[in-house]
Each structure stands twice: as structure tokens, then as C-alpha cells.
Amino acid sequence: MTRPIYVIGHKHSDMDSVASAYAYSRLLQLQGEQQAVAARNGDLKPEVSFVLERYQVTPPEAVDDLYLQVRDVMKRGVISAHINQPLLEAGQLLQEHNRRSMPVIDDEDRVHGIISDEDFAKLFFNDLDPRSVNRIPLNRNNLVRVLKGRVLVEGRRPLGNRVLVGAMQPETMADYIEAGCLVVLGDREDAQLKAIERGAAALVITGDLLVSERTLSVARKQGVMVLSTAHHTFTAVRLINLSISTQDIMNRTFDFCHPEDQVSEVQTLLARRRSLPVVDSENKLVGYVSRTDLLNAQPKQVVLVDHNERSQAVDGIEEAELLGIIDHHRISDVHTNKPIMFRAEPVGCTGTIVTGLYHEAGIDIPREVAGLLLAGLLYDTLILRSPTCTQRDERVAAELAAITGEDLEQYGQAIFAAAAVDLAEKPTEELLTADFKEFVVRDTRFAIGTVETASPVTIEKRSQELLTIMQRMVQEHGYASFLFMIVDIISMNCHLLVVGGEASVAEVLHAPLEADGHSLNVEGLVSRKKQLVPLLPAIQAAFSQKGSRA
């Protein structure tokens, strides 16, 4: 199976991340990389949903992490036995497919147990136990199947669990017959009639021998099944023993795993089991995983867009095979063990770089791709007003607007209006982390969250609850400082909430702290990447000078 190439942005993917992931995966597909998959992390933000619906684009695949999961390595189309299937057929399946075990399922594919070659070995030795010999759970349909028999008379008497070979005088045999038993016979009419008389539920006539009309008539009257088989007695008895249902000897206590389990979590189980059934939340069989599957497992392939910091990447990036990075931020700490495609350019958004990649490939940009790229560009550059916006961004915006027919100002305002719809109702922590990144400066951890809106008052009214959650997150994650930017895209100013090192932040930003001691207004501060992140070393230095926690 071809491995997918996931193109994905940072945690809690924003407009630029989603747009760039979609656009670059489409470019790869147009270049023949059909396994390229657009992905995103976290719930779709309102503005992203707005743009996807506007251009009728299916949302990129949601990816929680990049750890190798059981679903990535398991085998599908699993060989399995049915709970009512004759043991003979289950054994033939194991032999035919060179398997040592397989799951046992019902009509709805739910797994009830495991049957293995060890169970067949136990069955053989159990037959030698005098306490259990000649007693097996008999099943009418399975008897007919394994003996390939012809039913001469349908029976009414319930089958018990006793099997008797009538290789003796009828009177002697009569002492061994009990109600409901199955008797294996030849063509001796007197023995057949004696078995019926003493309460047998079924007669198996071997060797395709003729059965007299008298025997058949009595059997019909008494409700005794008469089954004829071409097998001779020795083989017939062995097959009857293998007619029991698979569920009668399967192991009902067994290990299993789920498709979403991480491969590292099932390695311990597979250390003591050769293979495991894979079941879904309803216990239905969806696959099978073995030690060999783990040995042959290959990591997920991924291209990162709109970030290159390990702390901002989706969990599990260290286990993935990194194929490329496309970004417009500073170069950080993502390491690779081999050369990769790396494009990092000083522009306002990743989409501007992706647009250039279409030009380099000589491929026209599809309208829906242009619509998403333009949305990411307008959102990241605050409708081309941000100090991060370059002349190249402006040229790309004009090009994409020409492809889509969008008015830049109207489209940008519509995107920000969509983003503001749920700001008043969004849970506090979700609001803080919707556009959230971590940074490390000289072993000092910072967190910066951002919200950009034309209605900052809506969020500023929630300042106290925002600060409470920020304080909790600082304690839980060990941040030296958590800064939350409430950016007014109309006035191009920022109301900044700070927890941790408030005085140092105010000093570096040359803005006074307000009466609450945790907020300040900073004129012209609108870009986390270009204006606030570059100041983190100075803030960290101020911490050290003031003796703050580093």
C-alpha cells in the first residue's frame, strides 16, 4: 500500500496553515504525487470553515498526531472463522493461509475469541481422556457439511453429545445407547432399528451403503435423522469430531488492539503474542497486526507548512519522516537525518511562497486553491496592513484576486467577520489557544496567543477570565511568561495581556502597565512574528536582571 504524504501546518491550524497545506498537497498531486494528503490539526476555525464553504472545498483531514498507529501497519481483509463454523473448515483455513491463529467472529463481524493450532492439539489429547471420549457438542448443520452427507430422513429428536460406533451385536450396542446420541453404522438393518428403538437421535450410514426402506420408514415415524456419507467409518468418526462449532474450543480470553492505538503501545503485547486482532469501538474486526508488520513498519511521511519549530509541530513529529518544510518564520529547531526540501522566505504568509512554487512548476493555480491562498494571505497580513506584509505579498494578492474575482478589502473583511462570530461564546481556554505558539529563549519558555478582530471590545470584556486561565497554564506548563495579543485590525493597535514577568514586558515594549498589573496597550503592535517574537531575548534578559524566574 502506498504511504500517504501528509502536508500539515502547526498545532491548532489557522487560515494560512490550512490554505497552504491544501494548496501544496494539490500541487504535489498535479505533479504526480497522488498520495499527497492535505491535513490539519484541531477543530476548524470559523473563518476557515467560511472560506472552505465559499469555495466548496472538503476540509483537510484532521490529524491529532504523527505517531505510527496500528491502522498504518495492520493487514486488512483478515482471514477469520465464524463462531458456528465447523472446526474442520477453521483448521483448513489456518492450513491454507499458513496461519497459526485467527479471530472468530459472528454475523456482524464482532470478535468473540481466537482459535489457534494449539487448540487443535488440545482437542486431540482431550479425545484420549476416558472421561470425555465420545462426547462432543453435536450440530446438525455442521455434521452434514463436514461429512458431505445426504440427508435421507430429517430428524425431530434433539441431538445430545454422545457419539457411538455400532461395531458390535445389536443387543450389546443397546446397552451403550442413550437418548439423543449419534450412532455410526454400516448397512445392518437390525442394528439400525435397535439404535432407533433405544432413543438415538441420528444415524450416520457410512460408505454410501444402501439403507432399507424399513429403516427409513421407522426413522421417519420416530423422528430420527438418517444421514448417508461416502466416507468409511474411521474417516467419518474423525470428521464428526471436527464438526463441532469453532466457538466450542476457541479461546474466549484474548488480547486485541484498536486502529488508533500507537504502535509503540502494542509492542509489549506482540512480545508475547505473534499477532493481534484489531477491532473498532463496537468490537468489530477491522484488521490484524503481527510482529512482522511491526518490523516492516515505516514512519509517516510529512511536509510541514507555516512552521518549523518542534514545539509548534503536531505531536509525534520526532517519529515521522520529514520530507520538506515551507515557512515564513524564523529558522528554529526541527532536525532531520537527511537533506530535505526547505523553503523559508521573509514574506507575510506561507501561501505567498506556495504561490511561487506553482509558478516554478509551470502549473496554473486552480480557482479554489487561489481562493484559499488569498484568504490565508489576507488573514495573516491583516488585509495587507500588517508590517509583515511585503511588496511580494501585495503582488501575489493581486494575482490571486484576479483568478478568484474577489475584492481584496471586501473578502478580507468577510473573513475577519466570520472569525469574530463566536468570540463572545468561545470557551476561554479555546480562545487563548486558537492561535497559540510556544517559544524557547535560552531555556526560558514563552507562550504567545493571538486573536485579530475588528471588535476587540468583545474580547477585552473577558480579560479577567482570560487572565485566570493564563495563570493556570503558566503553572501547569512552566512558562516564564504568557502573552495574549488582542489585535484591533482597524486601529492597528494591541491590547496585550501578560502573566509572568509583566514589568519586564512593559519595560521592553515601552508601554505602561494598566491598573490590573497584567495588561498594557501598545500602539502599532499587530504582528507576533515580526514585532513581538524578536523582542523575546530582550524580555528574557530583563527577567534575568530583575531576578525573575527563568
Brief overview:
The chain has 550 residues and is α/β, with parallel strands linked by helices.
How would you summarize the topology of this molecule?
Elements: E1 5-8, H1 15-30, E2 36-40, H2 46-54, E3 61-62, H3 70-73, E4 81-82, H4 87-96, E5 101-105, E6 111-116, H5 117-126, H6 140-147, E7 150-153, E8 163-165, H7 170-174, E9 182-185, H8 189-197, E10 202-205, H9 213-222, E11 225-228, H10 233-241, H11 263-272, E12 275-279, E13 285-290, H12 291-295, E14 301-305, E15 321-327, E16 341-344, H13 350-361, H14 367-380, H15 391-404, H16 408-420, H17 428-433, E17 436-441, E18 444-453, H18 456-460, H19 463-477, E19 481-488, E20 493-499, H20 502-509, E21 519-523, H21 528-532, H22 536-546
Parallel strand pairs: 1-2, 1-14, 2-3, 4-5, 8-9, 9-10, 10-11, 14-15, 15-16, 18-19
Antiparallel strand pairs: 5-6, 7-11, 12-13, 17-18, 19-20, 20-21
